[in-house]
Amino acid sequence: MVAVVPDPDGPGGRLGRHASGERWHVPDLAAAVAALEAAEQPRWVWTSTTDVYPALLRAGVRVARCHDLELTEALLLGHAGRWGEPRGLAAAVARLRGLPVPPDRPRPDAEPPGFAQVALFDAVPAERVEIADLLEVYEDQARGISGTGQPGRFRMLVAAESAGALIAAEMGHTGLPWRADIHDELLRELLGPPQPMGPPRRLAELTAEINAAFGTHGLHPDLPAEVVRAFHRAGIEIPNTRRWVLRRVDHPAVAPLLAFKELYRIWTAHGWAWCDAWVRDGRFRPEYVPGGVVSGRWATRGGGALQVPKVVRRAVVADPGHTFVVADAGQLEPRVLAAVSGDERLARAAAAGDLYAALAADSFDGDRGKAKIALLGAMYGQTGGDAIPALAVLRRHYPTAFDYVEAAARTGEAGGLVRSWLGRTCPPVAGSWREAGLDPPDEVAPPPGRARGRFTRNFVIQATAAEWALVLLATLRTELAGTDAELVLFVHDEVVVHCPVEQADRVVAAVHASAASAGRLLFGATTVRFPLDVSVVGAYGDAK
Hints:
Elements: E1 2-6, E2 13-17, E3 23-26, H1 29-40, E4 43-46, H2 49-58, E5 65-68, H3 69-79, H4 89-96, H5 131-146, H6 151-174, E6 176-177, H7 180-191, H8 201-214, H9 224-233, H10 243-246, H11 254-270, H12 272-278, E7 279-280, E8 283-284, E9 288-289, E10 299-300, E11 322-329, H13 332-341, H14 344-350, H15 355-363, H16 368-380, H17 387-397, H18 399-413, H19 452-479, E12 486-491, E13 494-500, H20 504-523, E14 532-537
Parallel strand pairs: 1-4, 4-5
Antiparallel strand pairs: 1-2, 2-3, 6-8, 7-8, 9-10, 11-13, 11-14, 12-13
């Protein structure tokens, strides 16, 4: 165990070995880290991977393992019901010593590639960090982990979260291959050529169609409030302009409005300005934020890497002589429900390739659609419409699984704490489902209101699914060591590897092995399968 802190007075730093208490200063920290990594692969202890690791990567140094104090402090605070309290080293030291707890320093939004400084540890604040403080907090966190209800599981969560932070920094450093010329072609195909001022031609045409459908002039379809008022004048009441709401409306403005919304998002989020700002030297390099939402899913500081529209993915093209291995975990959340609830009948269905089809054959007279609605409705708290009879069947045939999510909902409504399988704790909910990272699929309309029980019902499943995906990612990183394959993208339950063509079969085998290993590590000898849809493609947009 080696702790590392940068030196605010220069490019060097200080290292400390936990077991011996030895401390030393090094003028070239990157070289010292590289030497120790090659000799013994220690677990590095540092304040924040986001602060320390990018500088090491720029110096050509990669590490195998770390303990991220800030991420761990956040997990422990959440477990104690103190979610959102300051998690930085200064705050952790103050808590240990009974001093006033200072707020965390604000983190700036990521700057597009090409604008960042390249000095070693340029992002690290000027205040001095002491090795003794670092190790004292580490020891306190170790005690805190031991005091959780399931310390073995919580240690796995901490290890996975820290491994995820390493991978996130590595992916941001490596970048996702991106062809700016193809991106320009597809934008022109979808939107028409860019205009000196205002939106491109296709958006202007759709705006005219929408106005004609409403019999108005000057309506701005990019402003939801104006659209809601236009429907009101037409005698149609809608709460918002979400896709699932609009699809239920019978009006000639709906079709062009849905098309406008999709193309407007592409133009504003991944249009020409985005490409100019974020794609450099044939790579898109966002800054990922591990654990950036309450469910444990990742977020980004700029660039929108987690929400690249399918059509834009055509610009993600492998380098010459390389290919992409794209692995997507199908039906992950229902399979997680089967594993965590211990419902044997649902677990038997989850042993099949298509869980919904197996569920339909077992309990829904072969109707796969009803089986899917029932399971998603139970996990997301949908209690009306077509879900009512389907949920009754689910409750009768799979009572253990149904009771698992119901218990989480009741606990949440009573103000209690609910946890994922490994111990991540759901905070008090504020804001929308999407702001919380609990994003319902299109088949399930988000329930009205902000009742905490609806969040906690899904949290116990989605947060555990995020843990499975993190363990898969960490295991795959180890499996790929010694190859030329690189992890280049991770979106919730999908991972993309860029590798030489001749190594593709080895990567595919590693992906499948990592998925099986993640299931065993989390759930033991469960019969639930976690199959992956794996594609080997030259362009990301061609993946299944």
